[in-house]
Amino acid sequence: MKTIDTVVIGAGQAGLATSRYLTAEGRDHVVLDRGRVAESWRSARWDSLRLLTPNWMTRLPGWSYAGSEPDGFMTAAELTGYLSCYATSFGAPVLEHTPVTDVSPMAHGYRVTTLRGSWFARNVVLASGPARTVPTLSRRLPSDLHQLHTSKYRRPAQLPDGGVLVVGASASGAQIASELRRAGRRVVLAVGSHTSLPRRYRGMDIMWWLEQSGVLGRTIAEMPDPRAARTQPSLQLRGGTSGEDLNLAALADLGVEMTGRLIAADGSTVYFADDLAPTIAAAEARTRRTLDIIDRYAESAGLAAEVLPAVPERVLNVHEGPRKLAPRAAGITTVVWATGFRHSYPWLRVPVFDREGHVLQYRGITAAPGLYVVGERFLHRRDSSFIDGVRYDARTITDHIRMSSRAQRATRRAETVLEGAHV
């Protein structure tokens, strides 16, 4: 078993940001990944995907966008190249194709077991990406339906001929529904809780406003309901140079049929909740609250005269879709599960989980000495899981590792002195 100061598990943006800080500190570490650098961006995204954040918001420790389109939006392939260059820039010690199978506590550290050997590490940083979630309801859908999660979707031509039921209306579900409809498919969209924002507001990109107004920097301690904050779906938004909005009104204009949440299936028929109208009303209220924050910021910062005036958002009048649907009779051949992702650590044998399986932590620091987590949604700040936001928690974790090491060395010196006094 090899011995090392720190093992970082995951070579995505969060793991690489942590590695960059550890490298700057001169700390001996290794970054393990089940695949390649930025594996999920390589193999779990559809072809037309672009980031929701503009290029200037791809800031990582010691690295930022230097291309000619700071206001553009990277494709997944471009981001893969961006992260690979970042890893090369500081010689990140990444071991690819090294899946972790077990992390167990030992005296003064952890044993990290992989398919390519084991390490004894004083510190372990969990930076692996989330796993896809598909509800158990999927098992009760008609057996002849083709089902796939968004992480497996690539393009319309990949799917069998026929209509598509998309379950979930956050960024992924809305984007895929739009793409499929533009490709001539019949699309039924089962709409759950979501938050919609305009791509541009008062003449500026919405992400610029969210950063400037402090929305992205709000911490979990400021949230009235931390659990709800951490389970919020991604924004119903699309990256792209056109500045085109992606919301239910735009989808309705395309001819996407909308209905409430998918709540049941009996083998031949699927059933939807009668909640489309209240779901849309709740989403519009959240949109209005966020835009009000931006308007107040613009006023307080003296920007009101420098930007465009506020324009009322379009009120959506969506026709309520079917309450039940027999897919075969309706020509629906495919279900796309846009039901998100969740972090899961089935190989972690350290009791740091709450009843729902989430790692208990504060700013990425767990109660288990030397065990850290980074890159999760709203870990500390609203943008903790954003490419642009992982640097804050990575910095905090690296600082804590450094201070803990100093404290451990001081303890060992004191123990040595005491032992000498007893001789």
Automatic annotation (TrEMBL):
Q: Which residues cross the membrane?
A: none
Short name of one Pfam family: Pyr_redox_3
Which keywords annotate this record? Monooxygenase, Oxidoreductase
Q: Which molecular function GO terms apply here?
A: flavin adenine dinucleotide binding; monooxygenase activity
Task: Name the InterPro entries for this protein.
Answer: Auxin_biosynth/cation_transpt, FAD/NAD-bd_sf
What is this protein called in UniProt?
A: SidA/IucD/PvdA family monooxygenase
Tell me the classification of the organism that encodes this protein: Bacteria, Bacillati, Actinomycetota, Actinomycetes, Jiangellales
